[in-house]
Amino acid sequence: MSLLQQRTPFFAHPHLTGSVWPEKVRDSFADRVAAVAAVGAPGMGMGGYELEELLATHSLDRLRGILDEHGVRIGEIELLLGWHADGEEGEQARRSEEQLFSWAEAFGAERVKTSAVFIPPAELIPMDLLVERFAALCDRAAERGLTVELEPFAVFPAFHYGVAADVVIAADRPNGGLLIDTWHLFRDPHGLAALERVEGRHITGVELCDGAAEPVGTLQEDCVNSRLLPGEGVFDLARVLRTLDAKGVDVTLSTEVLSEDLRRLTPKEVTTRTTAAVRSLLQAVQES
Predict the structure, then answer these.
(1) Were both Cys, which of 30, 89, 223, 226 would link to 216 (CB 3.0–4.6 Å)?
(2) What value does the mean pLDDT take over residues 168-173?
(3) Predicted TM-score (pTM) of this structure
(4) What is the rounded (10 degree) CA torsion for 102, 105, 108, 109?
């Protein structure tokens, strides 16, 4: 099925938690799984911080049983940080990587989401090291049958979409590429240009959301509180989807809408409204 013919989105982990990290996840795992099943979605993501907490009181078999009961799969685990570091930070990142990879295997997830964060005064490390270490991360993931999704965060602009595109192009790993999150893409001055020049084979994930013309509050506040469902804002999502489709991108469309308004709703209300918005957007793109 082509990108534009998909009907129901995959739900990224933060879209359904009813909370903002590092707050405790509000809605239960079982309720979210049931909500995903109710709209016939292809799956949902999970955050490592929540899995660690869940597994303190639930067995893997119990969690997998809930998924099996509803016919839902965990397709993505997040968030791996620090892969680019050395020293103590690098060692801690490798331990986190092993845990996330193990959870991905345990749930049959195919993808692991990652980013590189450089908070001032920390500076971006040399490009050759970024490429070398990202390539090595992808190679370790490949040994476990996993795909790596590299997502730049617009709130941490040192590692922007232009840098991330250079990294995935130079690393050139079949299981490693960019995650196109449309909030970060449109809030990043380098985003659309990076999307235009990267090949479709170097895009491993797509997360849809919309937004206002200008950030509501600070960029961080806009990121976690004021994203909109696809079609409810001014982002040119049609352009993004047509560009991706023309590049032959063949991934499952996801949504990641962090919104105060959505957090007031039940998981089923969120999945129902989101699915309707995505279908409306895709129909409009197809008909235009």
Answers:
(1) 226
(2) 98
(3) 0.96
(4) 60
For 239-284, how does the pLDDT look when each residue is reduced to its tens digit (9 = 90+)?
A: 999 999 999 999 999 999 999 999 999 999 999 999 999 999 999 9
CA atoms of 152 and 161, how far apart (whole Å): 6
Q: How far apart are CA 96 and CA 77, in angstroms?
A: 12
Phi/psi of residue 259, each to 5°? -150, 135
Residue 106, Cβ density class (10 Å: 0-12 exposed, 13-18 middle, ≥19 buried): middle
CA distance 125 to 145: 28
Per residue in 109-166, pLDDT tens? Answer: 999 999 999 998 999 999 999 999 999 999 999 999 999 999 999 999 999 999 999 9
Contacts of 69 (CB under 8 A, 6+ apart): none
The domains of the chain, with CATH numbers, are 3-287 (3.20.20.150)
Q: What torsion, rounded to 10 degrees, do the Cα atoms 21, 23, 27, 30 define? A: 70
Residue that has been written with the tokens 């232009």 in this structure: 162
What is the C-alpha to C-alpha distance for residues 104 and 74, in angstroms, rounded to an integer?
A: 8
Q: Is the pLDDT of residue 22 over 90?
A: no
How far, in Å, CA of 145 to CA of 108, rounded? 10
Look at residue 2 in the predicted model and tell me its pLDDT. Answer: 86
- The DSSP letter of residue 228 is B
**Confidence band for 1, pLDDT divided at 50, 70 and 90:** low
State the sign of the Cα–Cα–Cα–Cα dihedral 122, 93, 50, 32: positive
